[in-house]
């Protein structure tokens, strides 16, 4: 790895259709397989890692959570902490159930990035005319 302040950023939008998401995971894995530089991935992953990241709606698919968690672990990624609201998306009411809330937006980084910017965090902003909460810039005195 070069000794510099540079790092790579991957913006992610994973398909809302479950059967297409594994293609995204595979492409990201292939893209980063030989990357040694500090790297950050952020965006809408359209998946959750555990039942605590969902409220309301139908029952959590534990196998789906496990697949996504394993992908994060296999990729040796760590999550950058966020502040403010826990959930980043609000879905509609379906079949008379409560609204669904999920944490589908997240920021993941490799260990090299986290070691360099260990105090970093991001803010989840309020929703405005959307069902998605935007995530603001990453806060760290070393970055900005």
What does this protein look like?
- It comes from Trifolium medium.
- InterPro entries: Endo/exonu/phosph_ase_sf.
- The chain has one domain: Endonuclease/exonuclease/phosphatase (Deoxyribonuclease I, Chain A, 4-Layer Sandwich).
- It has three helices and ten strands, in the order E-H-E-E-H-E-E-E-E-E-H-E-E.
- It has helices at 18-32, 62-74, 111-116, and strands at 8-13, 39-44, 54-55, 77-79, 82-84, 89-90, 101-102, 105-110, 121-124, 135-139.
- A four-stranded mixed sheet has the order 1-2-8-4. Strands 3-7-6 form a three-stranded antiparallel sheet, with no helix packed on it. It has a three-stranded mixed sheet with strand order 5-9-10, with no helix packed on it.
- The model has no long low-confidence stretch (mean pLDDT 82).
Kindly report the name of the CATH homologous superfamily: Endonuclease/exonuclease/phosphatase
Using the 3D structure, state the CATH architecture: 4-Layer Sandwich
- Choose one word for the global shape: globular
Oligomeric state as shown? single chain
> Approximately how much helix is present in the residues?
10-25%
Q: According to CATH, what is the class? A: Alpha Beta
Structural class assignment: alpha+beta
| Rg calc | 16 Å
Uncertain spans: none
H/E element sequence: EHEEHEEEEEHEE
Strand order of the largest sheet: 1-2-8-4
- Number of spatially distinct domains: 1
Mean pLDDT, to the nearest integer, reads 82
Give the percentage of residues in beta strands: 25-35%
């Amino acid at each position: 790895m070069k000794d510099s302040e540079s790092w790579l950023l991957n913006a992610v939008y994973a398909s809302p259709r479950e059967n297409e998401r594994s293609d995204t995971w595979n492409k990201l894995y292939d893209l980063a397989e030989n990357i040694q530089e500090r790297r950050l991935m952020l965006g809408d992953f359209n998946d959750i890692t555990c039942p605590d990241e969902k409220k309301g709606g139908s029952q959590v698919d534990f196998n789906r959570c496990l697949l996504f968690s394993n992908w994060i672990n296999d990729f040796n990624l760590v999550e950058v902490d966020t502040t403010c609201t826990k959930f980043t998306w609000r879905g509609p009411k379906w079949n008379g159930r409560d609204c669904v809330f999920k944490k589908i937006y997240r920021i993941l980084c490799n260990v090299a990035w986290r070691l360099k910017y260990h105090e970093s965090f991001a803010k989840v902003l309020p929703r405005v005319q959307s069902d998605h909460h935007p995530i603001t810039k990453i806060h760290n005195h070393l970055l900005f």
